[in-house]
Design a protein that fits this description.
Strand order of the largest sheet: 7-5-6-8-9
Radius of gyration: 19 Å
Largest sheet: 5 strands, mixed
Number of helices: 10
Helix content: 25-40%
Strand content: 15-25%
Structural class: alpha/beta
Shape: globular
Number of strands: 9
Length: 262
């Protein structure tokens, strides 16, 4: 991002996770790593956007690192979207950016979104074992591995599989076994529902934030369904979508950028 008026270049990442969801570092460690990797290239803007979690201590870190990085509030909100003509419930993520971390309605909505994922993860473990992959002897192993946040989800499971040598990379775990895309050998439909897309967008805006559609290509939709999702997101108040994502090809990025111009 370049500020033409000031002729300064900004390095931005608004979709980063800490140990409180899919990351492996504490929030402060994420900030420190961003500063270190920037290496004085330009001004850095960062949003730590954990799943259905508010960045409660952002003011503390903003003050501590104010001369090195700009921190804005972020949160990746899970929503339930019904795919037209299929009646299939699809988990779609919306990035809430630059919202008021003290907004009560927004916080209450996120609390409703924080389901106990143990039964879901246990079903994935059963399917993995059925194809000859035994990850743990006891569920507590995963809880301990996820400490101190104790947020247990597919990403934590994938990291544990990599650590134990059951897969080479996290991407391999998702591509072959339990991702919403790829071979889906041990895929399990998420058994719960989240808030609706409309509710999420409404509460993000009430909290003064920007609702942004996350990684549209990760929802295993065909081209028609993808365009319908993007149009619906815009119609109910969405303002932007994530066109630059680490897993995308150049063709996918260009395609999303062209959709934005439509």
């Amino acid at each position: 991002m370049k500020n033409k008026k000031l002729n300064e270049r900004y390095y931005c990442d608004f979709h980063v996770h800490s140990k409180e969801s899919d990351g492996s570092l504490t929030k402060e460690e994420v900030v420190q790593k961003a500063i270190a990797e920037n290496k004085g290239k330009g001004k850095m803007v960062l949003a730590i956007s954990d799943h259905n979690r508010i960045f409660e201590d952002i003011e503390k870190l903003q003050e501590k690192y104010k001369n090195k990085i700009t921190l804005v509030s972020g949160c990746e909100v899970s929503t339930t979207y019904i795919v037209p003509e299929t009646e299939r419930n699809l988990e779609v993520h919306i990035l809430a950016l630059d919202y008021d971390v003290k907004h009560s309605e927004f916080k209450e909505m996120l609390l409703r979104n924080q389901h106990n994922k143990r039964p879901y993860i246990e079903k994935i473990l059963e399917k993995l074992e059925a194809v000859g992959i035994r990850v743990v002897n006891d569920y507590q192993e995963i809880v301990d591995f996820a400490a101190p946040s104790h947020h247990v989800g597919r990403m934590v499971l994938a990291r544990m599989m990599v650590k134990k040598g059951l897969c080479t990379t996290v991407d391999e775990c998702f591509d072959n076994y339990f991702g919403s895309y790829g071979k889906r050998l041990c895929y399990v439909d998420f058994p719960y529902t989240y808030v609706s897309m409309e509710t999420a967008i409404e509460n993000i805006k009430k909290a003064g934030g920007l609702p942004i559609l996350c990684h549209p290509y990760l929802y295993n939709l065909d081209n028609k369904q993808l365009l319908t999702l993007i149009r619906h997101f815009k119609e109910v108040g969405g303002v932007a979508m994530e066109c630059w994502y680490g897993a995308y090809t150049k063709k996918q990025r260009d395609s999303l950028l062209n959709i934005c111009k439509m």
